[in-house]
């Protein structure tokens, strides 16, 4: 699990390789934003739908996260292909 946890910041920072300080601050800011939004939405779901609905919302967020990873991977591959052509 530590390998995965250590890979996430470097993956985020790799989006701005020429400005590591800026990338690091973005990673921290968006991490905090994610915790805030997740807590807010989770609390709202508990209040409106009950505790039993919260895991489903977590699953939806997990699927969205994997879709975003796939989208970034696809865009990076298409960018590499356009540079090699």
Secondary structure: elements and pairs:
Blueprint: H1 2-13, H2 20-49, H3 54-84
How would you portray this structure in words?
It is a single chain. With 85 residues, the protein is mainly α. Helices cover 86% and strands 0% of the residues. The protein is built from 3 helices and no strands. The protein has helices spanning 2-13, 20-49, 54-84. The chain is elongated. The chain starts with a helix and ends with a helix. The mean pLDDT is 80.
Backbone CA Rg: 17 Å
Low-confidence stretches: none
**Continuous helix count:** 3
Structural class: mainly alpha
Report the biggest beta sheet as strand number plus sense, adding barrel if it closes: none
* Distance between the ends: 38 Å
List keywords for this structure.
single chain; 85 residues; mainly alpha; 3 helices; elongated
Compact summary:
The chain has helices spanning 2-13, 20-49, 54-84. With 85 residues, it is an all-alpha fold.
